[in-house]
Design a protein that fits this description.
The protein is an alpha+beta fold. Helix content is 50%, strand content 7%. A six-stranded antiparallel beta sheet has the order 1-2-3-4-6-5, with helices on one face. Strands 7-8 form a two-stranded antiparallel sheet. The longest helix has 29 residues. The radius of gyration is 28 Å and the shape is globular. The chain starts with a strand and ends with a helix.
């Protein structure tokens, strides 16, 4: 019999680190019960060091609070003879490091879709960890792993991918905290801010995962350096070697995702790991890569040693399929104002109050059947369906919007790929990622022409762009294919009838507006709204006509309605500027204070900013309030106050503070994103 630790029989030593050693062990019980686990126990020589014991116990306390399919689970915590130990889930496959070593030894690169899937699953686990809450108190754990690396991303033989080893993670619930100026983690995977010993958030883990993805794709690390000092300088100062320089066959979109995660400025990275996950999944969907856990499992078992069936199948997929009329979404920067942990706001969808396209824009689209299976559309009254219940919170998590429900797509071959594109487009709609939704709808409609739901999604995207002529064309194609449900077909028919009835009048009103006959144009657009309240161009035109007449109240009302219907419209930015102008005119913005008051405000702002970074929200609230008492015209203090309220569950106060910030700084770099956030928040609270 080998050594025992508590109720566990030690089988073989797996490894040893600076603080603990790791064993494969077995737990046995009545009735022949047997289960393999991994035991982690602190080194005997460290038992007299309180700091290391506290760190070990902190890991147990932290991991016990985490439960997610992409995080290695903690089963048990105990003590035997004064030695504490953890019993954790046994992953029977290699680490990502072992996978890369196996591929290198065989002389074969890992297929690109598998690389993206591994990174997407790891992103999902990290995204959960970064936003996890204590199950007992409900308070955020504010966790940062700080040691994401190929060694700590583990695989199972069934194809699961899990994040492991939270031994040096930082969390709000831990008693032991790293001293200021102390750097922890593996150097090659540290972010620039980690090397500078700055306060960290989840984007430090995102950077590390970007290094792992770079290695998976290319077989190399991002920098060509020799020695520790040179590597540290490169991480902080030097550009990476482009992904496609290492491996030219990597598609530009996938390379762009990787390189964005590796941005030196964390404000240029993805807002969080969930956004990175969505970008990777969108790339997989657009390329037609239906990569499953089975594919990863089979590649580990067979293909890593040479080209097998899975490799051939994955490499035969089209990884560079262009999307008609749309640029690569991953390569486009996402607004991330200020890079502070309180931005990245997102909102769940909620039904609008008007009829017609308000219903079309908000409700779920069931998956479309082939034309032969669809019943003919029947006339029905237009109504606004009940959307998901409003979320009373002011979310701070960019992944807050839940996934859309999509029923299975029936029909001809290729239905699985159609269903994936269809579901991905719906998820993007619910997350209000309009450019992603449009791109996926375009791909779906162009590749799966027999599925009417794709046309409906594309028509909705056109309405959001205030492009009613093309929206009408897509809706006609949708109806020609048989529609999806009788109710949606009827609502689409009603929208088309509204649009057709005002099309000529809309053209006349536009001509009058262009000729500066504002009064006649105002009346014409008003008539348009009476007949077709869901056509966004009617509201935009009336706002512009009202602007010429000096009717500020009507300008504000019409522009707000236009932005609700067409948040991606061509004049959306101008509409927001006009709304901010009117708000500033009604409540003149104070100027910044001078002298001692200004100095007091500056000091309070710095205290508040640091407290917000440290997630000390009570201190942040006090500091920002003190800042505004000294200097009511200090815009950044209003924004900091809004962020603090958003984090502490007071969304109404947060929205009020953000509006004050926009009145003072209407042209700030983050103004457009905050305006969109506030509009969505207002929709939730009607």
């Amino acid at each position: 019999m080998g050594e025992r630790l508590g109720r566990y029989q030690l089988e073989r030593k797996l490894g040893s680190g600076g603080m603990a050693e790791v064993w494969l062990a077995r737990a046995e019980g009545p009735g022949g019960f047997s289960r393999q686990v991994v035991l982690k126990r602190i080194h005997v020589h460290l038992l007299e060091e309180p700091r290391f014991v506290e760190m070990f116990l902190g890991e147990a306390s932290l991991v016990a609070r985490l439960s997610h399919p992409n995080i290695v689970q903690l089963f048990d915590f105990g003590e035997d003879g004064g030695t504490p130990y953890l019993a954790m889930e046994w992953m029977d496959g290699p680490s990502v490091k072992g996978l890369m070593q196996k591929a290198r030894a065989s002389g074969r690169a890992i297929p690109l879709p598998l690389c993206a899937r591994i990174a997407a699953l790891a992103s999902e686990g990290l995204g959960y960890a970064h936003t996890a809450k204590d199950p007992e108190t409900g308070l955020p754990l504010q966790l940062v792993h700080r040691d994401v690396s190929p060694d700590n991303l583990l695989l199972s033989r069934s194809g699961a991918v899990k994040v492991a080893d939270f031994g040096i993670a930082r969390s709000a619930v831990q008693k032991h905290r790293t001293k200021t100026g102390t750097v922890k983690g593996k150097l090659a995977y540290m972010s620039p801010e980690q090397l500078r010993a700055e306060p960290l958030d989840g984007r430090a883990d995102q950077y590390a995962l970007g290094v792992v993805l770079y290695e998976l794709l290319t077989g190399h690390r991002p920098f060509d350096t020799k020695g520790t000092a040179e590597l540290m300088r490169a991480i902080v100062q030097s550009p990476i070697v482009p992904v496609r320089t290492r491996r030219p066959e990597v598609p530009e979109a996938l390379a762009a995702i990787t390189e964005r995660a590796l941005s030196k400025d964390r404000e240029a990275r993805f807002t969080d790991c969930r956004e990175m996950q969505r970008a990777l999944e969108a790339w997989l969907v657009r390329g037609g890569h239906a990569v499953s856990a089975w594919d990863l499992s089979q590649w580990m078992e067979t293909d890593a040693g040479g080209p097998g069936e899975v490799t051939r199948e994955l490499e035969s997929s089209d990884e560079t399929t262009p999307v008609p009329g749309a640029a690569s979404v991953e390569s486009a920067p996402t607004a991330h104002a200020g890079g502070r942990p309180w931005v990245g706001l997102a909102f769940a969808a909620v039904a609008l109050a008007a009829v017609g396209v308000a219903a079309l824009l908000q409700q779920e689209v069931p998956s479309a059947s082939p034309p032969s299976a669809a019943a003919p559309a029947q006339p029905a009254a237009v109504r606004s369906p009940a959307g998901p219940p409003p979320d009373r919170a002011l979310p701070v998590d960019a992944g807050a919007a839940g996934p859309a429900r999509a029923e299975p797509v029936g029909g001809p071959p290729g239905e699985s790929a159609a269903a994936e594109l269809f579901a991905a487009a719906q998820r993007a709609e619910r997350a209000r990622e309009w450019s992603v939704a449009k791109e996926l709808a375009l791909r779906c409609a162009s590749e799966f022409t027999a599925f009417s739901g794709c046309r409906l999604l594309l028509g909705r995207a056109r309405v959001r762009e205030a492009n009613s002529p093309e929206a009408a064309e897509e809706f006609r194609r949708y109806l020609a294919l048989g529609g999806t449900t009788r109710e949606q077909a009827a609502e689409t028919t009603a929208w088309l009838e509204q649009y057709e009835s005002v099309r000529e009048g809309l053209a006349r009103a536009r001509a009058q507006l262009d000729a500066h006959v504002d009064d006649a144009a105002y009346q014409g657009f008003g008539a348009c709204i009476q007949v077709a309240p869901s056509v966004p161009e009617c509201h935009e035109g009336r706002a512009r006509a009202a602007l010429g007449l000096g009717e500020n109240l009507q300008v504000a009302q019409s522009f707000r309605r236009y932005l609700e219907l067409a948040p991606a419209g061509p004049t959306a930015a101008e509409a927001w500027r006009q709304l901010d102008r009117l708000a500033s005119a009604n409540a003149p913005a104070p100027r910044r204070a001078s002298g001692p008051k200004r100095e007091e405000a500056d000091r309070a702002y710095e205290r508040g900013k640091q407290a917000l970074h440290d997630r000390s929200y009570a201190q942040a609230l006090t500091a920002f309030q003190q800042c505004l008492r000294s200097d009511p015209g200090f815009a950044e203090c209003h924004k900091g106050l809004g962020a603090t309220y958003a984090r502490t569950g007071e969304p109404e106060k947060g929205a009020e503070a953000y509006r004050a910030y926009l009145r003072l700084a209407p042209d700030a770099p983050d103004a457009a994103r905050l305006r969109t956030m506030l509009m969505q928040f207002d929709q939730q609270h009607r």
